[in-house]
Recover the amino acids of this structure.
């Protein structure tokens, strides 16, 4: 269904899109050989121009052959043996040779594409027409303008129908239909082209010659040669050339040399008059066209006439070509072998890589790639990413690839010069150190570098190989490009992944910190709410408590009965206790600012232990104090530290309500010299995870409701917090609880 | 006003005139006519009136007793909690050494201070209209009340607030609930009343 729709859409593609398609194909046509520019530059007819021309033609064997073919004509009475380009130039004239050379260049550029027999024949006719128009234009120019521009007129004429050749090359079938329909009909081919192709040859040609940068005169004559010469816009800079080509085209079409496909009738006389060419001159021009055309046709092999001599010569030529192509075949066989080796190695390389590979893994794989490609023992690849100076080095030997990350100081800066991909170059001297450091022994043969360079990273593969091993690879530039591009891309994607992973990790960390901050915020908010509530409660509750306690005390002074006295005493005592709860809550929410001092941890712990042993009747075997670091200091408020220890110890004591109870107090070796830890460990009932989570909440108690105040541990936590430390618990049900108190070891240095 | 803690037992005619708000001539006339009993200092003509005779004279002539030194220390209790005020009132009256007045707002406290000229101010920190520290500062800014002792009594004992109150001129801070004997002893000690 979908396919069907697509097909319909493409066959009914609007003309505009079809034009775009054609233009795209035109852009893919080959560019002109640089020789064309040199040939176009030869305008004069002096000796230096002749020398230039010879110098251009001689290095090109096929062009030389063409030029020599021009002089091998019976009427000139010369044979090709012993003939040189220089002699041909002197025999034929500079301009003729130049024109022939230019024609062959255009011809070869555009006949590279194949086609069936009829297409070939069609193109031959077009070329003949074009050559003839060139000659006619040259002849007209010689009469009507400065003879120096006659050469330019030839090129304008030669190329005027280049658009047809281009369209025919791009769309042979459609163009055959154009020509078929134009046959024997007095219509301008442009109209048919627009109708069938959506684009005519003048526009196509204009686009092509513009791309070839052939100059404004040629562009305009290609584009406007079908225009009425009297109706050219005034903005046209080279109207004269356009008119010449227009006239020449009309003349040749009437003469019937070649076939242009256009059969419309042009008013030749008026066109000639516009240029100032009279009837007699016109006749002379027509007469002289064939004599100029003939050598050109011969040069291009468009001549129909064939004689025995040239047959023999072409036989030997064919033999020579056969020999040449044999050599080429052997050569391309070798190239193909290397190419397939490269392909295999690259396949192995890419299969070996996974999306989790680190840069160093990619390096190792790259080194492996070179080893297996060149059948060498060692290779190493290194990468330097823009944000890191650290080099990733992967080394490989025959046993397999091994990767590692190394930070190497050697000056890989020199290697910056090899920023382009695709050349095996002798490694810069600085690479020797890298090689020795990584492989473990100095390079025995020459050290080579295959650099690669991407936006994310730069690096290279180093390997040791003899010249005969490296040479095939060095001469195969395309393969080198694929190798370095593939490695470069793999490295670059690994580098990108590293950055991505780092970003993800940072995000995760940020998230975690946000979560902690949020929890802390919630805690701070609830603490400040407790503070507010406690302040209000203290005021509201303490007034009635003061009255209760005061009244009871007053009764106490009046009362003699011991039993009643006891009751009043209880009232007073309980009022005080109620008030104490409120105060505790206040202190928890808004503790006194600590007055920290540096003190000996050992002394604090010893005196606390002595106190507890006396109050809890735990012997030294049940309350064990271990101090690893006797001279540890702790920096905090002394009273508050005692309160913390007392709360933690009270908790431990409460948890160990059995015979085998044991509480250990450690001050382990310092984790860092900035903090000290006190670890209180009991073998009591422990806590379930649920209890553990809430055990630091104020008033939380795992005991039945109504017992105890439950501010102990949360108070200790709070006091540790305001002294710049922290407190945390680890616990397992039935195994016991460990409370760790961490406090600063010394005063912070400002 | 003698503030040595001793109650005056014998007065001169000048002192009696001042206490009874009459001229010294009138006092001498009453003394000489026998309506105000007293004695002359042996060896001189100076008249002296014992305390009891003065009280009898003032009562029989319906002269207000306000300006007669009672010997008791004046205590003004300021608290918005009626139960607290009542308790203090009862407690201090029962002790017998104190003359007690009460107020429940800062405004009342101001008026009472002006009229009653208390020796001791028992001040709740949190009053409905103004806070104790403002009361303290206002009193301390008046030179007439330099001698007055201010005791703040509060259910909230924020150390910062206590420090601020002391700076504002409070002499003592007592937290509620409190030991009543300790409070009374402290008041007496501050005023050196026997």
């Amino acid at each position: 269904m979908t396919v069907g729709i697509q097909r319909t859409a493409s066959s009914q593609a609007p003309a505009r899109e079809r034009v775009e398609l054609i233009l795209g194909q035109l852009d893919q046509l080959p560019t002109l050989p640089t020789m064309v520019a040199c040939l176009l530059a030869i305008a004069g007819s002096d000796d230096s121009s002749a020398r230039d021309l010879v110098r251009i033609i001689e290095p090109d064997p096929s062009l030389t052959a063409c030029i020599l073919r021009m002089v091998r004509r019976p009427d000139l009475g010369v044979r090709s043996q012993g003939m040189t380009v220089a002699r041909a130039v002197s025999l034929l004239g500079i301009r003729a040779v130049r024109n022939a050379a230019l024609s062959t260049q255009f011809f070869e550029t555009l006949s590279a594409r194949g086609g069936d027999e009829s297409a070939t024949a069609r193109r031959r006719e077009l070329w003949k027409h074009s050559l003839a128009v060139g000659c006619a234009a040259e002849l007209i120019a010689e009469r009507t303008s400065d003879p120096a521009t006659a050469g330019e007129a030839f090129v304008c004429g030669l190329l005027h129908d280049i658009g047809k050749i281009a369209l025919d090359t791009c769309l042979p079938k459609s163009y055959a239909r154009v020509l078929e329909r134009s046959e024997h009909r007095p219509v301008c081919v442009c109209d048919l082209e627009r109708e069938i192709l959506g684009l005519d040859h003048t526009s196509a040609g204009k686009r092509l010659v513009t791309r070839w940068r052939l100059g404004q005169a040629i562009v305009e004559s290609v584009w406007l040669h079908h225009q009425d010469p009297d109706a050219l816009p005034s903005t046209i800079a080279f109207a004269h050339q356009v008119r010449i080509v227009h006239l020449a085209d009309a003349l040749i079409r009437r003469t019937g040399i070649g076939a242009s496909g256009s059969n419309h009738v042009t008013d030749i006389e008026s066109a000639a008059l516009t240029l100032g060419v009279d009837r007699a001159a016109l006749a002379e021009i027509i007469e002289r066209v064939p004599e100029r055309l003939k050598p050109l046709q011969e040069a291009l092999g468009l001549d129909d006439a064939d004689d025995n001599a040239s047959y023999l010569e072409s036989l030997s030529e064919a033999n020579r070509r056969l020999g040449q192509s044999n050599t080429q075949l052997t050569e391309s066989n070798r190239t193909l072998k290397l190419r397939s080796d490269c392909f295999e190695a690259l396949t192995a390389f890419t299969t070996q890589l996974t999306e989790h590979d680190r840069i160093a893994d990619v390096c190792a794989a790259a080194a492996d790639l070179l080893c297996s490609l060149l059948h060498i023992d060692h290779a190493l690849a290194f990468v330097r990413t823009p944000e890191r100076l650290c080099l990733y080095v992967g080394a490989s030997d025959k046993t397999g690839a091994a990767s590692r990350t190394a930070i190497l100081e050697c000056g890989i800066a020199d290697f910056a010069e090899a920023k382009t991909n695709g050349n095996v170059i002798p490694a810069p001297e600085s690479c020797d150190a890298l090689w020795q450091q990584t492989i473990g022994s100095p390079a025995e043969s020459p050290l080579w570098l295959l650099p690669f360079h991407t936006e994310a990273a730069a690096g290279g593969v180093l390997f040791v190989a003899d010249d005969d091993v490296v040479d095939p690879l060095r001469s195969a530039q395309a393969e080198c490009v694929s190798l370095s591009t593939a490695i470069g891309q793999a490295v670059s994607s690994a580098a990108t992944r590293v950055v991505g992973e780092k970003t993800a990790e940072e995000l995760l960390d940020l998230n975690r910190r946000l979560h902690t901050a949020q929890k802390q915020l919630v805690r701070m908010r609830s603490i400040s709410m407790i503070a507010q509530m406690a302040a209000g409660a203290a005021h509201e509750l303490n007034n009635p408590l003061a009255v209760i306690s005061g009244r009871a005390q007053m009764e106490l002074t009046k009362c003699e009965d011991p039993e009643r006295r006891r009751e009043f005493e209880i009232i007073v005592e309980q009022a005080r206790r109620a008030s104490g709860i409120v105060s505790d809550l206040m202190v928890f929410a808004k503790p006194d600012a600590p007055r920290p001092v540096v003190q000996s941890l050992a002394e604090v712990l010893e005196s606390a232990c002595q106190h507890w042993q006396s109050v809890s009747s735990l012997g030294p075997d049940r309350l064990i104090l271990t101090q690893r670091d006797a001279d540890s200091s702790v920096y905090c408020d002394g009273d508050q530290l005692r309160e913390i220890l007392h709360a933690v110890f009270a908790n431990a004591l409460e948890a160990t309500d059995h015979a085998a109870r044991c509480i250990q107090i450690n001050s382990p070796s310092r984790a860092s010299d900035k903090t000290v830890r006190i670890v209180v460990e009991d073998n009591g009932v422990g806590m379930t995870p649920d209890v553990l989570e809430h055990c630091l909440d104020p008033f939380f108690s795992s005991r039945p409701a109504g017992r105890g105040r439950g501010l102990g541990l949360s108070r200790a936590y709070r006091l540790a917090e305001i002294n710049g430390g922290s407190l945390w618990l680890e616990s397992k049900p039935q195994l016991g609880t460990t409370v760790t108190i961490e406090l600063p070891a010394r005063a912070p240095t400002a | 006003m003698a503030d040595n803690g001793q109650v005056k037992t014998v007065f001169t005619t000048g002192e009696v005139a001042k206490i009874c708000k009459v001229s010294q001539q009138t006092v001498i006339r009453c003394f000489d006519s026998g309506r105000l009993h007293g004695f002359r200092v042996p060896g001189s003509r100076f008249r002296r009136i014992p305390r009891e005779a003065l009280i009898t004279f003032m009562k029989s002539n319906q002269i207000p007793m306000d300006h007669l030194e009672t010997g008791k220390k004046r205590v003004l209790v300021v608290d918005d909690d009626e139960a607290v005020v009542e308790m203090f009132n009862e407690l201090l009256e029962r002790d017998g050494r104190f003359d007690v007045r009460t107020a429940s707002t800062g405004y009342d406290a101001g008026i009472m201070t002006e009229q009653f000229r208390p020796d001791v101010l028992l001040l709740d920190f949190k009053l409905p209209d103004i806070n104790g520290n403002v009361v303290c500062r206002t009193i301390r800014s008046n030179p007439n009340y330099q001698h007055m002792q201010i005791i703040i009594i509060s259910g909230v004992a924020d150390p910062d607030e206590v420090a601020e109150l002391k700076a504002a001129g409070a002499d003592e801070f007592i937290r509620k609930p409190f030991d009543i004997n300790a409070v009374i002893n402290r008041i007496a000690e501050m005023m050196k009343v026997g």
